[in-house]
DUF393 domain-containing protein
Amino acid sequence: MKNTNPMTEDVWLVYDGECPVCKTYCKYIRIRDAVGKLHLVDARNSGELMDEITRAGLDIDQGMVLKFKGAIYYGPDAIHMLTLLSSPSGIFNRINYYVFRTNFGAKFFYPICKAFRTALLKLLGIKYIENLKQAR
């Protein structure tokens, strides 16, 4: 469905579709209606946005990516921006807002979340995406 409100912009969130943490986060995150539509993009599927991320030298295994209004946000900046665009509905979004609403909170807590994700992927035997290695 195409966004027809000229005052809104769609949001693109690129995540690891095989990571249970990433999938759960994407399942519950909600953005405000006034912003636009949230498009979830599995980084394990090739496409124009993944090509753009790779050309920019961003390692998707080290951070999620958010694209909004033509700008690309990576890692803690991505989760911080997504939090600012999020709806306050539901307990998950309220907790997310409380933790990641400031740059300090995002830069402090994002590496902790990323370390948990890394350990979980290793425990479950899920391989990294390695988008930068594939580009060589």
